[in-house]
Amino acid sequence: MPQDPHQTISQFRAALESRAIIPPDPILGDGQIHRCDADGKHGRGDAAYILHLDGIPAGGFQNHRDGIGWENWRANVGRTLTPDEERAHHKRLKAMLAARRADEQQRHDHARQRAADLWDSAPPAPHDHPYLIKKAVGGHDLRTYKTALMVPIRDVQGVLLSLQFIGPDGKKRFLSGGQKQGGFHWIGESAETFCIAEGYATAASIHEATGYPVAVAFDAGNLEPVAKVLRARHPKARLIVCADDDHQTPGNPGVTQATAAAKAVHGVLAVPEFRNRPEWATDFNDLARLSGPMAVAVQIDTAAEPDGETLEIIELADVIPEPVRWLWPGRFALGKLSLVAGYPGLGKSQFTASLAAVVTTGGTWPVTGEAAGAPGDVLFLSAEDDPADTIRPRLEAAGADLRRCRIMGSVRGAQASPARQKRRCFNLLDDLPNLERALKRQPARLVVIDPLSAYMGDSRRVDTHKTSDVRSVLAPLVELASANRAAVVGIFHLNKREGSSAMDRINGSGAFVAAARAVWLIAKDKEEKAARVFVQVKNNLAADQDGLKFEIRPCDVRTADGDIPTSCLSWRPERVNIDADEALVGGGWNERRNVVEDAGQFLERFLSTGRHPATDILNAASAAGLSEKSVYRAKKNLRITATKGKGNRQGWVWSLPNKDGQDGQDTHIDA
Asked: H helices then E strands: how many in the chain?
């Protein structure tokens, strides 16, 4: 059944009105292009439509003022079109496209002639034009029409395509029917570097601040077409796309379109950055008027690739001051990284269990007596202790609320089937976003990483003895602690360098100590064999704190299958008035064990599986806190054999005596 013509006209009228087109009366359905008016001032003749009423009614329309372009339309006939009707409709669309292009070309030709007539008869723009004064820029090849500035729109050959008019009040309009896409106004002379900006005042400010030539693209949507035209003309030039930062507009079209333009031509992107930014400030002209041309020049000259890394600079005036928030007042701060260091077997893990007991129950801190506040959660990352037979029993013995204690497991792959999921160890280098998500879902007041060095990532990518490598891993961890208000406590082993300060005894790069806001030492008490001291190594956030003392006592944890023997920490009431260096001198670890003996035991374990390159052995020994001198002394004591190939690339290989028929000899072998 044919569509009712009145119903079709009514539908088409509503579609025109949705594009701010004033429907003519009558609307002609003869399949020809017809001009009509758009809403608003200067909208006369700025819209067009075409409508076919025969067959399946269809047509299209365009408001030349809204920048959206041509829109095809088809009547709603209440059913799916037949294949023949679909073919007829597509044939009609092609015909309408040809008619529209012919009409558009006619409009462009007419506008080009009109622009030439207006431009040729127009006087140069005065320097005191109200718009130029308001924007504090000069008139670069501008003319005037009545009271408005005229900005020429030219193609890459310099042919005048159309005009933009800017009134004294800053209102802008384009010559009706004129071509804008791909057209621009060029300010300055050609150079190896040039810029593209949206508006005239913005472009003029950039040119006056930098001396670079600048193309005025007139709006964000024309940045990419202009950039492509200019890149084709200047393939080796440095092209800087200068965005308007439409920070108050959804989607920020200025930055979005400028970014796309810069990517399309392998250019760089400049986005204005403001100090104490007013809400109205969006572009480089605003920046020039607020901060001066030097600020514009610096930001243009430091433009970066759109996908490149940028440096975040924070104005301290924008930072809201706040006091340090504490987990344990004066000792462990919330939102900060702290370290607890000591030799193996002195109670570091029992110490963290004691911390967890206070945090998870909201108890009071030992000896010092401060309230811990509301109960909080604790997350453990433990590479050395088993959760079932060590970590949980110690937490139970300490009195922790196990419902608030969690332990980080392995990182699982993305396969749907659990049986096929690959698992690997968590590491801070690659998996910090996973930890961030875990803390967002289940916030923790305390995060224990035991030992911190075990979670630094692949040793081929992170050398824990190199400051830059350590900082690259710890800096994001510090940011994570701050963002989540969590006290992150890293457990650390000491190296065995006798005579060094306590700060130098923490194994690895000094960047570990530098990144931590507080570092604490657990050492044997020189006066009481069973006691341990907990003393300050450094504290950047509070006054120096007294040391404390504790003992490690055996205890049992009751289960359904019987008691499990474990150990727990018992705090002593007295304070300790020695510093960390004193705590390490002449006692504790060095009384019981000799560093050369330690090195010897290390070598026997390492070489028990056979020959190994000396470089691998020395690297592993260093990671274990053993000096190269101690290792070589132990090598001599154990009569370890070293062999070296004759080739230039063949290094020394060590093996235990009798493994290769040798006994404490250094020999050369054929490669």
From this structure: 18, 31
In this prediction, residue 421 carries a pLDDT of 61
Residue 670 confidence (pLDDT): 41
What is the Cα–Cα distance from 670 to 668, expressed in whole angstroms? 7
User: Mind giving me the DSSP string for 122-171?
Assistant: PPBPPTT-HHHHHHT---SS-EEETTEEEEEEE-TT--EEEEEEE-TT--
**How far is residue 102's CA from residue 104's CA, in Å, rounded to a whole number?**
5
Q: pLDDT tens, 249-295?
A: 888 999 999 999 999 999 999 999 998 899 999 999 999 999 999 99
The CATH code belonging to domain 116-301 is 3.40.1360.10
**What architecture (CATH level 2) is domain 326-413+420-590?**
3-Layer(aba) Sandwich (3.40)
pLDDT reading at 188 higher than 80: yes
- pLDDT of the residue at 490: 95
d(CA 173, CA 582): 80
**Mean pLDDT lowest for which of 103-107, 209-213, 285-289, 327-331?**
103-107
Query: Which of 318, 451, 304, 476 lies closest to 385, judged by CA?
Result: 451
- Count CA atoms within 13 Å of residue 211 on its CB side: 2
Question: What is the spatial distance between Cα 469 and Cα 457, in angstroms, rounded to a whole number?
Answer: 10
Helix pair angle (223-233, 253-264), 10° resolution: 20
- pLDDT per position as a tens digit, 118-162: 999 999 999 999 999 999 999 999 999 999 999 999 999 999 999
Residue 645 confidence class, pLDDT cut points 50, 70, 90: low
3-state secondary structure of 57: coil
CA end-to-end span of the chain: 94
Query: What beta strand segments (E) does 389-530 contain?
Result: 405-407, 411-412, 423-424, 446-450, 487-493, 518-524
Write the pLDDT tens digit of every residue in 577-592: 888 888 887 544 443 3
DSSP-derived 3-state class of residue 547? strand
Chain mean position to CA 26: 58
Domain locations in the chain as residue ranges: 5-79, 116-301, 326-413+420-590, 595-669
- 658 burial via Cβ count (<10 Å: 0-12, 13-18, 19+): exposed
Q: For the chain, how long is the longest CA-to-CA vector?
A: 111
CATH class of 595-669: mainly alpha
